[in-house]
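User: Let's play a game. I give you a shape written as tokens, and you guess the letters that built it. Ready? Here's round one.
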């Protein structure tokens, strides 16, 4: 019997793994198919097409599901998600078939030479090692802690889980339970997680443990694809791995909306860099990616929009006499303006408050984030400055735009921290996009330095070359070691322990749904809602914070949870606490878990 049980468990694990892989492939398939409609076979290599296709899949499916649920009341479940993805793939294939028929017999343009097509196996092996290094750096905080690390993650956990359970974007707030959420500024992120959950069948804990590192590896791959055509793809991917994570700035170790927006910046830059001038379909792809970023994370959308405006504006200045550049710039600016207008219609109070905050000097509420620079690494920073110098010296159109974009991002964070002008959340999240841009430029500098060294190596004695390479290797090893150490030392929020996690899961599985609201120790109030499936009265984190309630809850628990009248007046029928409880109206059903008599 034990042998059969073990075999059965292993078989189930294989089935779950195959479903996760198949679901992920199915999720990304439609965009890959549609990429052939927007870009000819000779335009993109397989890797580039996979990257662009992934962005198209995530963007199109999320926006369609959002519109279908909002306008047509279509339920959000595995069947409807599968239907949407299947229809996207089928229509993409139909468009390709129609294009093939219409072009039959016509003269085709010659295939262009693409340096990506000549990437050899060693380069891909090095890339795999770099991406594994990036994955490891982002995964370090989860080596000894399997639960979400940041309070924002717990909020997104609760909201996404409630969306899946309700099968609609209109559901009861799972945290406090006192209002309905009919729309959310980051609903695109929750729909993305919903699709991942439904298609792969993975548990929420597994998703929040492994997907941050996976997304960061994807960010490194996107940086590689952006730099590869100019010869510095590996270097760009390598320095991208050093982008740090902090509880204030967030970053690649957290499964939050900005982490999903990060890999889209290199994709947008790739399209702007190589196709904006000569391919009209690029505008549609750009606007689709931007639309997704707006519903995924509006602050990131503002930062990514700056990249589009910088590139589009510089192209217009260079070719302002040509009508097509007027049209392109008008379409881009118009699309961004429409997105901001829709955002205003959905969240008028928040948008107005953001514009008011823009020009009002303020004190940053949580201090500065300047420690992000040394955590990024002094070698990375030095190469970034060197790269700015190299690119400025060359001052070619594409490189010029990259330098200007970095300057714009520096301006956003610099003005906020020096003059305290700007929107706090935009300035905070702009740090990550600035560091990503800096990593790409640092990769360019590293490539230029290495190319110059190898070009003139015959002029130097062998000992000098060996010494230079040794110093380079030592610096890279020290940088990697420092990054690993910093990731281990960085303080993160640990809202739950193994015992409290098991308690909350037990509540969800064993306590009747009649008991719907709890008063808990406020320190882990935010984690209680998604794990126990019950709303809370108050918590210490900002999403469930209320000063008056916090004092009431602490006084109630400190007094042994004895005030039954106080509980009934507030609709509370459960107590979860590590403190002593002295109330005959409460029934102890498990250590630390008490239910109120109905």
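Assistant: Ready! My guess for every position:
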């Amino acid at each position: 019997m034990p042998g059969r049980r073990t075999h059965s468990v292993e078989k189930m694990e294989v089935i779950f793994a195959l479903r996760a892989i198949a679901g992920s492939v199915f999720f990304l398939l439609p965009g890959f198919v549609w990429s052939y409609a927007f870009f000819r076979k000779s335009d993109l290599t397989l890797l580039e097409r996979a990257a662009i296709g992934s962005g198209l899949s995530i963007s199109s499916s999320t926006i369609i599901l959002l519109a279908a649920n909002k306008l047509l009341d279509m339920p959000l479940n595995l069947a409807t998600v599968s239907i949407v993805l299947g229809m996207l793939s089928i229509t993409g294939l139909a468009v390709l078939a129609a294009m093939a028929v219409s072009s039959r017999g016509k003269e085709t343009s010659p295939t262009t030479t693409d340096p990506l097509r000549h990437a050899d196996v060693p380069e891909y092996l090095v890339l795999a090692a770099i991406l594994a290094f990036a994955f490891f750096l982002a995964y370090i905080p989860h080596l000894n802690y399997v639960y979400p690390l940041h309070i924002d993650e717990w909020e997104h956990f609760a909201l996404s889980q409630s969306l899946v359970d309700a099968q609609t974007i209109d559901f009861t707030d799972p945290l406090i339970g006192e209002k309905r959420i009919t729309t959310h500024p980051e609903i695109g992120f929750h729909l993305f997680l919903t699709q991942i959950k439904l298609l792969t069948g993975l548990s929420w804990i597994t998703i929040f443990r492994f997907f941050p590192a996976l997304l960061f590896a994807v960010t490194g791959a996107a940086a590689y694809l952006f730099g590869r055509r100019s010869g510095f793809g590996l270097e760009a991917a390598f320095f991208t791995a050093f982008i740090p994570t902090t509880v204030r700035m967030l970053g690649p170790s957290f499964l939050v909306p900005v982490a999903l927006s990060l890999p889209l910046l290199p994709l947008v830059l790739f399209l702007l860099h190589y196709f904006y001038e000569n391919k009209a379909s690029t505008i549609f792809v750009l606007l689709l990616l931007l639309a997704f970023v707006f519903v995924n994370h509006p602050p990131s959308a503002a930062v990514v929009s700056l990249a589009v405006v910088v590139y589009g504006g510089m192209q217009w200045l260079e070719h302002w006499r040509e009508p097509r550049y007027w049209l392109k710039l008008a379409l881009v600016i118009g699309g961004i303006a429409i997105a901001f207008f829709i955002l205003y219609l959905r969240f008028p109070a928040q948008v107005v408050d953001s514009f008011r905050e823009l020009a009002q000097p303020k004190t940053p509420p949580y201090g500065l984030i300047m420690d992000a620079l040394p955590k990024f690494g002094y070698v990375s920073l030095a190469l970034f400055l060197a790269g700015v110098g190299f690119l400025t010296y060359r001052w070619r159109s594409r490189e010029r735009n990259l330098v200007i974009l970095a300057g714009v991002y520096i301006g956003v964070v610099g003005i906020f921290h020096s003059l305290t002008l700007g929107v706090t959340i935009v300035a905070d999240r702009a740090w990550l996009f600035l560091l990503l841009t800096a990593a790409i430029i640092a990769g360019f500098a590293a490539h230029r330095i290495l190319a110059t060294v190898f070009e003139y190596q015959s002029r130097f004695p062998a000992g000098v070359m060996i010494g230079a390479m040794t110093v380079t290797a030592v610096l890279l090893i020290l940088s990697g070691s420092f990054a690993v150490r910093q990731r281990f030392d960085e303080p993160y929020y640990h809202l739950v322990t193994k015992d409290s996690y098991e308690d909350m899961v037990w509540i969800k599985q064993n306590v009747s749904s009649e008991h719907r609201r709890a008063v808990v120790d406020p320190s882990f109030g935010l984690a209680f809602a998604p794990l126990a499936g019950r709303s809370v009265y108050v918590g210490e984190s900002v999403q469930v914070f209320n000063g008056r309630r916090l004092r009431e809850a602490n006084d109630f628990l400190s007094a042994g949870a004895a005030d039954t009248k106080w509980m009934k007046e507030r609709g509370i029928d459960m107590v979860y606490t590590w403190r002593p409880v002295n109330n005959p109206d409460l029934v102890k059903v498990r250590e630390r878990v008490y239910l109120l008599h109905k």
